[in-house]
Amino acid sequence: MAELQNDRFLRALLRQEVDRTPVWMMRQAGRYLPEYRATRQVAGSFMDLCRNKELACEVTLQPLERFPLDAAILFSDILTIPDAMGLNLRFETGEGPIIGKPVRTMADAKKLFVPDMASDLGYVMDAVSTIRKELNGSVPLIGFSGSPWTLATYMVEGGSSKTYAKIKAMMFDQPATLHHILDVLADSVIAYLNAQIQSGAQAVQIFDTWGGVLTPRDYNEFSLRYMHKIVDGLIRDYDGRKVPVILFTKGGGQWLEAMADTGADALGLDWTINIDEARARVGDRVALQGNMDPCILYASPERIRQEVATILEQYGHGTGHIFNLGHGIHPEINPEHAGAFITAVTELSGQYHK
Ligand code: 1CP
């Protein structure tokens, strides 16, 4: 495998010295890029794009051709796991994901199984190894998965939700059913991320996009506990290097200490917490990734640059910061504004690492 030329992302995740703050964007490959929309058209459906390793590789690399990013992220989706469990996933335009066979009872839950990584999810591993080869050591490749709680919201609700009515009713009235679902999901995520690592992923991120809708007690019991189990089960050293793990709970700013207790290397922050406060609370236990409001990218390039400068100053001197948005880039963003953001990080952050 080619020697890694730019390792500042992996170094910052492990709180090792870097020359400047590394930067990547959640959802950096996606609908805000016209070249992504063109490739998706060629593929047909979104899942066909995920299942085609050449096209998945092509869209993974598209943002790197435009911007000086310090990491690539596998092009795929978190819902590949429920799909591999036979729950009939489909994406309908304008409606988001739909799970054709939602999980509502203990009998449904008992039918769930840990998918076979080679036969059911081999297409994801093929995409990982194709992308890794094509990157040729230029930047590291991030693998990812949803958290058990976040995956379960789609599986129980049958798709996206505003209220989480069905999964919360299950959580309150049939906790054993939900724990069974989360347990199978945690085992699935461990196998899935380890297979991605063995196929070439050099860091992994767990997206707990909906953990923030829980009370602190329920977050501990139904989300964090299972992410902790995953962190315990992951391969942490591979191919002569550490494989850092990033936990991202959107809305999880009040739980950083407990998240750090899982043993993860880094925590993702959304924009509802100040990064200086987050740093003071976690100290040198974990690195921090974030945390610019994605809506800043609707503003002018000058205002974007000013916001980058503010966040860099808030984090302050030293390593342990990976610049990112606090959540995924929105589909309507002008790619030039994304470029202004990334360039600002590369130009303004060196002074904090001398
Ligand atoms: O082309 C299209 O119309 C499909 C839009 C799309 C894209 C580009 C979906 C459907 N998924 C993706 C790719 C994707 N999803 C990536 C790719 C890599 C990159 O970041 O460049 C990643 C990391 C994800 C992860 C994902 N999928 C999450 C967690 C991250 C987050 O943004 O919070 C979630 C919640 C999903 C579910 C999902 N898949 C797709 C959509 C539109 C959604 C969200 C639905 C909802 O809001 O409930």
- What is the name of the CATH class? Alpha Beta
Low-confidence stretches: none
What is the CATH architecture descriptor? Answer: Alpha-Beta Barrel
The kinds of small molecule bound in this structure are: coproporphyrinogen I
For the record, give the distance between the C-alpha atoms at the N and C termini, rounded to a whole number: 32 Å
Calculate Rg over CA atoms: 19 Å
Give the spatial strand order of the biggest sheet.
Answer: 1-4-5-8-9-10-11
Task: Write down the overall geometry.
Answer: globular
Mean pLDDT: 97
Here the CATH topology equals TIM Barrel
Number of helical elements = 15
**Structural category:** alpha/beta
**What fraction strand?**
5-15%
Helicity level = 40-55%
The tally of strands reads 11
What letter string, H or E per element, gives the SSE order? Answer: HHHHEHEEHHEHHHEHEEEHEHEHEH
> How many discrete domains?
1
The biggest beta sheet is recorded as: 7 strands, parallel
